[in-house]
Amino acid sequence: MATLLLELALTRIFSVVFYYHFAFLAISIALFGLGLGGVFSYVVAGWKAPLFTRLGRLSVANSMFVMVALIILLAQGERNVTSLCQELDLPQPTVSHHLGLLRMNNLIGNRRDGKQVYYGINGRFETPAENALAFAVENYSIQVSPSGKDEER
Length: 153
Known about the structure:
Layout: H1 2-17, H2 23-45, H3 51-75, E1 79-80, H4 81-88, H5 92-104, E2 108-113, E3 116-121, E4 124-126, E5 133-137, E6 140-144, E7 150-152
Antiparallel strand pairs: 1-3, 2-3, 4-5, 5-6, 6-7
Helix pairs in contact: 1-2, 3-5
């Protein structure tokens, strides 16, 4: 605890003396991350399951976060793997693996343009009429209108 207080005091002094305005912020965020990691480790240690089950659950949660982030990015428009890697700050094999899983489950599709492969969401959302929503996937579409009657095309 004394080391932590010394580090905070020195950071405050150096940030004022040397005009490093963001030095205190950077150290504070780093220390917050260390503290958050300790709290997270404490919570995971309290789970009543074998070690590998706990690690598996954490891996599944991490994988789901990556997939949700990919779907959110692809909902904004088509992207290639390189732009997704840069946006998510993840390595290319990780992004390609998750894109493959999403493609195997028909949640996303891809098209090739030369050497580049562009990924996008399968289907599209439209609002063809006032207060109606249409969802189209490949050759099948459903339109929901406010009257409550669904129309198939």
